[in-house]
Amino acid sequence: MRKLGNKQGDSSSISRRGFLIAMTATGVSFGFPRSWAAMDPASPNGEVLPSAADVYEPSLWYSIDSAGKIKVNIIRAEMGQHVGTSIARILADELEADWQDIEIIHVDSNEKWGYMVTGGSWSVSQSWPVYRQAGAAGKTALIEAAAKQWGVAASKCKAQKGKVVYGTKTLSYGDLVAKGLSRQFSEEELKALPLKPNKDLSLVGQQVTSLDITNKTNGKAIFGIDAKIEGMVYGCPILPPTRNGSKVSTLDDSAAKSIKGYQQTLILEDPSDTVPGWVMVIASSFYAAQKAAKKVKVSWQAGAAAYVSESDFMAEGRKLIQDASQGAILDTGNSDTAAAFEQASSTLTQEYTTHTVLHAQMEPVNALAFQNSDKVWEIHSGCQWQSLTLPSLASALGVKENDIIMRSYLLGGGFGRRLNGDYTVPAALASKALGGKPVKMVLLRTEDFQFDSPRSSSVQLLKMAFDQDNKVSAMEHHATAGWPTKVMVPAFMPKGINGESFDPFSISGADHWYSVGAQKVRAISNELANKSFRPGWLRSVGPGWTNWALESFMDEAAHHIGADPLTFRLDKLIAEGRNAGVEPISIGGAARQAAVLQRAADLIGWGQPQAADTGLGLASTFGQERNMPTWVAVAVQVHVNKSTGIVKVQKLHVVVDAGIVVDPNGAEAQCQGAALWGLSMALYEGTEFVNGKVKDANFDTYTPLRLSQTPEVKIEFIPNTAAPAGLGEPATTPVAPAIANAIYQAVGIRLRKIPMTPEDVKTALSRV
User: Fold this and answer.
1) Among residues 6, 7, 46, which one has the least CA distance to residue 400?
2) Which strand (E) or helix (H) includes residue 466?
3) How far, in Å, CA of 533 to CA of 606, rounded?
4) Does domain 311-356+454-766 correspond to CATH entry 3.30.365.10?
5) Is 144 exposed, middle or buried (0-12, 13-18, 19+ CB in 10 A)?
6) How far is residue 724's CA from residue 480's CA, in Å, rounded to a whole number?
7) How many CA atoms lie within 13 A of 691 on its CB side?
8) pLDDT digit string (tens) for 188-227?
9) DSSP letter string, 38-53
């Protein structure tokens, strides 16, 4: 039996016999691009596929076959957000394709796809120009081919719903491909192609059926945890007492030998230092591996973090903030605040903190690894950042990156956890120790929590100076936390104006769009946190703490001078200078943030009298980064039970301006999920480190938002023709400060830590 492809030119090097991990279903395929199918007459779902001669690829991003089917290649991970549907419709709209002819392929990690990452709410925004140009190229080539066949000028023809039309004559895209097409476009030609005016887009912004919804609802969807291959064994890890620096001292597996199916226990040797001190129990079944692991006795020499807890991170953060020599100063145009504070009529200074937060995604991390018959290492797993994971795998296995291929699977929850593909390394190391034999590793929930790359705790200090007319003359924002980018991809760190590098994802949000005079933003790495565990990117990343502090502080500043919190903010959202925004995404700048804030206030009934112990709160944000802002405002109504300390969020209204909304249903779902995630972290969700480990091991003590705690949620989008921005994360961050601000209005207490627990409320009330 011949192999399908080869490791250099094609990413599908696996025998037909071993093809038990196929993930092809109606409308969507995972891991195995259809290009391999031209080499074999039978596809994984039994259809007869066209030969290579009957397929036209106007660009890397899609192909059209002689049946008129259009297969769109997607490099972004699918984790419930229907990203393939969004990206495919961008292309289909420009191509003038019939939506019924569209299929999507979530591709593997072949280097031809370029840099692969799904995070930062970047997917649709970054895909917008690329897939529109690609669609325009195909449309141009098809029109030219039809015009040539009819002997007419291409300008006399048009494309619509998968056909080229000239008067009463039509030619389908499939017919044109069958006759042979080879037109290709250079980068310069692609950029020069005219695109449809935004007002003429017919699929973008309209209701369509998501291409992956059928299989997600009928049980056919395949996740990483479902991956299988003939002859695989199961690995159950035994985790060391600390994430970093642990070493195995002794190991006794004598009791495990009584378990049927138990094979052996491996001490993993990891050159990449991703999983130091890991032990992997190998068995013929998942259950045998789990049973045997309970009988294996291991002792470790623990790393230094065994003596470090959450309070130590907080103490270190406060110490770092007080040291003016620490950290990087961001370029805000004018960061010299000293004179304004010296001359201030009054000042305000407050500290805000956040606790460690776990990802707690529903599908525990997992991976299947083996070396195929072409000596290529195959890694089967759901992953958000293949281009970051591949170097770690290469280092661990001692091979080149192009000797590894990562197969794409559905993610049962990402939220940033699978940006860090560290969980693929132990499976690969176990397979290597077994001579390349397939090893399937699935972490239990308790292991998944312990091995998480959590969002670091943070400490922030904010200051504001006011002149004699109570106008803001200067503002400072100092933030310290563990930095995931420094730990995992330091090349992504720019330098501040003082020459120090900083993690942009741990300070974004602090460089806000309010006009506050001189503005200093200082980002400080908490090295104690970085060394004690592996900080990770969690949905919204830095703004999860920076916006908590900023929007709480803006409320406090308004009350400090006796101003209305809404008016205070609106007066400072002035679209001038660096806050005016630029084409194509941030155009309009602060004025767009002001618009969503005003609309949210109107929806909640800002200024209207409330019942006893009930209050309204506002907060807004620009999302993640200044060059890709998504303007979001949140308004909440809360009731505080003074006896129990329980805060009940009764209404949660979210107003969003993300430019052109490509997928209305997906956009609403994304914002609903993000806002409820923000609510969960505000009131219910959080953990802490105790002697090097997170104290919560499962959902019995780690308690995210439950359905019964969910308020009335309303999402509203403000129409805008600016290029699309991201929607997966921005609605997360304004929720917590809006709740804190509403609590203050309801019962007069100010909470400056999240999560805000009933105990925190009762303690604050006892001091009033």
Assistant:
1) 7
2) strand 458-466
3) 43
4) yes
5) middle
6) 31
7) 3
8) 999 999 999 999 999 999 999 999 999 989 989 999 999 9
9) GGSSB-TTSPBPPPGG
The alpha carbons of the chain give a radius of gyration, in whole angstroms, of 27
Report the C-alpha gap between 122 and 185 in whole angstroms: 26
Q: Which residues contact 393 (CB under 8 A, 6 or more apart)?
A: 272, 377, 379, 401, 404, 421, 424, 425, 428
Domain ranges of the chain: 24-217, 228-304+365-442, 311-356+454-766
DSSP code at position 687: B
CATH 3.40.1180.10 fits 228-304+365-442, yes or no: no
Angle at 93 between CA 90 and CA 97, to 5 degrees: 120
Q: Which of 294, 282, 290 is nearest to 438 (CA)?
A: 282
Nearest to 365 by CA among 378, 376, 387, 380: 380
Our measurement of the distance from residue 94's CA atom to the centroid of its chain's CA atoms, rounded to an integer in Å, reads 27
C-alpha 740/C-alpha 743 separation (Å) is 5
Structure tokens at 372: 């195929």
- Give, as one character, the DSSP assignment of residue 578: G
pLDDT single digits (tens) 128-185: 999 999 999 999 999 999 999 999 999 999 999 999 999 999 999 999 999 999 999 9
Tens of pLDDT, residues 557-574: 999 999 999 999 999 999
In 3D space, the residue among 641, 623, 640 whose CA is nearest the CA of residue 632 turns out to be: 623
Q: What is the pTM of this model?
A: 0.93
Same fold yes or no, 228-304+365-442 and 311-356+454-766: yes
Q: Which one is the CATH code of 24-217: 3.30.365.10, 3.50.40.10, 3.60.20.10, 3.90.1170.50?
A: 3.30.365.10
Cβ neighbours of residue 410 under 8 Å, at least 6 residues apart?
Answer: 23, 30, 78, 79, 221, 222, 223, 224, 382
Distance between the two ends of the chain, CA-based, in angstroms? 79
**CB neighbour list of residue 627: distance below 8 Å, 6 or more residues apart:** 585, 586
Nearest to 694 by CA among 586, 582, 532: 532
Count of residues in the chain: 768
